[in-house]
Amino acid sequence: MTKKLKWSTEVDMATDRRKMIVEAATKSFSLFGYKATTMDQVAKLANVGKGTIYTFFKNKEELFEEIISSLVKEMMAEAEAVIQPDVPFTENVHHALYRLLEFRSQHQLMIKLVQEETEMGTLAVSEMLQHVEDAIIAYLKKKIDLAIAKGAIPPTDTELSSFLLLKMYIALVSDWERNHQPLSSEQIAEIMKVFLVNGLPK
To answer: How far apart are CA 158 and CA 201, in angstroms?
Structure first.
């Protein structure tokens, strides 16, 4: 085996081990939560020695950050997948937000983390969930900036509008249903349209 081929094989093996560790950690966080997950558990699930984990990640926090970072990228890809160039901006925002919240409510890891924050208030989990929310707001801000540049909506404070948009959407989709008849997708889209066109803070 040539040196180049040997090096390439070693790199591939390291990449595979790293992937196995990330997948095992994701499974552990999803099943047991952040606080209850240990590096020993992750090593056992990944079928590697605990020392192997530390060749890729210095601690549990760094491993958790890696997983949440990948999760955020996956969420943004899901949102982008429902964006249609020939559809009005307000409808695209509705579809993107619906997909993002659907992802958040169905993804096993997200469900477990929200549960852990509610029941235990784990600081690391609270910070990561805030990171996810910040990423969604940044995504919305980018879309609103683009819509303003194209003249699709009036100029606005885009960061504040993105924050309000997310909070309002969560309220309409989940909070409203606790004491009222659920709103249809069309009703939510219409409310969003009114807010985006007429009610954005300057």
So the answer is: 8
